[in-house]
Write a structure and sequence with these properties.
This protein is 28% helix and 29% strand. It has 123 residues and is of the alpha+beta class. Strands 1-4-5 form a three-stranded antiparallel β-sheet, covered by helices on one side. Strands 2-3 form a two-stranded antiparallel sheet.
Length: 123
């Protein structure tokens, strides 16, 4: 699970070290013996898009797409994978994932082993 940059709005993309014009994509991949496989992905739309139907239409955002934060998407995707019967041996993630206490608790409740990066000041 992680994020990647592109173009959409001024946000902290995580890789530039500053606020940049970018988009945030959240991806769920598997590390299979044959190589990585993309399992799920979603675009994290900026909050200012939440109630802007005209902007959605102009950008071609489907009506069914609802605004969700990066952390909401990061929690949603592993749940969808489990519901679909995807076998999971380990879950790994970056410090954004590791800083999400709800995600860590959910992984523990699912009895899934995980290794998530955390910032050194994370309780």
């Amino acid at each position: 699970m992680g994020s990647s940059g592109g173009t959409a709005g001024r946000r902290d993309g995580g890789t530039a070290g500053r606020i940049e014009k970018c988009q945030i994509g959240v991806f769920l991949t598997s590390a299979a013996p044959d190589g990585p496989e993309l399992l799920d992905r979603e675009l994290c739309l900026p909050c200012e898009w939440a109630d802007d139907a005209a902007r959605h239409q102009e950008a071609g955002v489907p009506e069914a797409v609802r605004i969700a934060t990066e952390l909401q998407l990061t929690r949603r995707m592993p749940a969808r994978a489990l519901e679909a019967g995807v076998p999971v041996a380990w879950v790994t993630g970056d410090s954004i994932d590791g800083g999400d206490r709800r995600l860590r608790v959910w992984l523990e409740q699912q009895e899934l082993p995980f290794v998530l990066a955390v910032k050194r000041d994370e309780p």
